[in-house]
Amino acid sequence: MKKQINKEDDVTAPAEIIETPEGISVKEAGRRGGTVTRDRHGVEFYRQIGAKGGESTKRLYGQLFSEFGKLGGRPRRPNLENGAGEGSPKKKEAMVGPGDSSAA
User: Fold this and answer.
1) Number of structural domains the chain divides into
2) Average pLDDT for consecutive 10-residue bins of the chain (104 residues)?
3) Residue 78 burial (C-beta neighbours within 10 Å; 0-12, 13-18, 19+)
């Protein structure tokens, strides 16, 4: 038999024995879970786990991010704003030279 959630109930009960009267969405379930975690552990908990995650990312991918930083964080290719995107006449002209119709 399933039971309904009450404020007094332990929210760590297995999901298969909990039934909500309104049938909540995944988004709402996540929001409620995050609220309970915040109330249980406090805001400092999120700061600590964020710092741990940042350190792990730095340890695993630090060299890669260092290379990205040296590139300036910008792609090294033409973009559509300067008229040099795919199929652009400026791009074709740059590849073959002005007035050369053999590339068209």
Assistant:
1) 2
2) 52 56 84 93 93 94 86 67 59 60 52
3) middle
